Amino acid sequence: MFVTPFFLQAAGTSGTGATGTGAVAGGGLGMIIPLLLIFVIMYFFMIRPQNKKQKETEKMIAALKKGDKVITIGGIHGIVSSTKDSTVIVKVDDGTKIEFNRTAIATVVTDKPATTEKKDAGKKEKEEEVTEKETETSSEEKKDE
């Protein structure tokens, strides 16, 4: 009554006949494929992007030089005053310098000038607003007539 087909198979007797042994042997492959699929999905969505991000961070830390604007992990903004093998001296205020480990630098701030694409996008939005107003006024004029 409480005997499972697994125990029957292990004992050499099968309560389900020849079909019970074939189902158990084929079931192992059916269980491995979903696990492999989950691992592949995790690799492409979690592990691989994390490795890329870590390599980019290592390149950024290795490329630190005097004059770079940086933000530390703690949120301190400053300018790199000098660099050493494993530390960076950051100028925070006129007379204040703090020494950090290189790994404490979260980002290097780059000041990007305004691009012409943003200006063009603003012009297009203004033109669209003007055309919408023109269509509204023309539709109101038609209603008045």
| Cα-atom radius of gyration | 33 Å
Shape: elongated
The poorly predicted ranges are: none
Q: Percentage of helical residues?
A: 55-70%
- Would you list the SSEs in sequence order as H and E? HHEEEEEH
Helix/strand class: alpha+beta
The biggest beta sheet reads: 5 strands, antiparallel
Number of strands: 5
* N-C termini distance: 91 Å
By DSSP (H or I, 4+ residues per run), the number of helices equals 3
The average pLDDT score comes to 78
Proportion in β-strands: 15-25%
Q: Largest beta sheet: what is the strand line-up? A: 4-3-2-1-5
Report what the structure shows.
With 145 residues, this protein is an alpha+beta fold. The chain is 56% helix and 18% strand. It contains three helices and five strands, in the order H-H-E-E-E-E-E-H. Strands 4-3-2-1-5 form a five-stranded antiparallel β-sheet, covered by helices on one side. Strand 1 and strand 2 (77-83) form a beta hairpin. The longest helix is centred in the N-terminal third of the chain and has 45 residues, at 18-62. It is elongated. The N and C termini lie far apart (91 Å). The mean pLDDT is 78.
Keywords:
alpha+beta; five-stranded antiparallel β-sheet; 3 helices; 56% helix; 18% strand; elongated
In short:
The chain has 145 residues and is an alpha+beta fold. 56% of the residues lie in helices and 18% in strands.
How are the SSEs placed, and which strands pair?
Layout: H1 5-11, H2 18-62, E1 69-72, E2 77-83, E3 87-91, E4 97-101, E5 105-109, H3 116-144
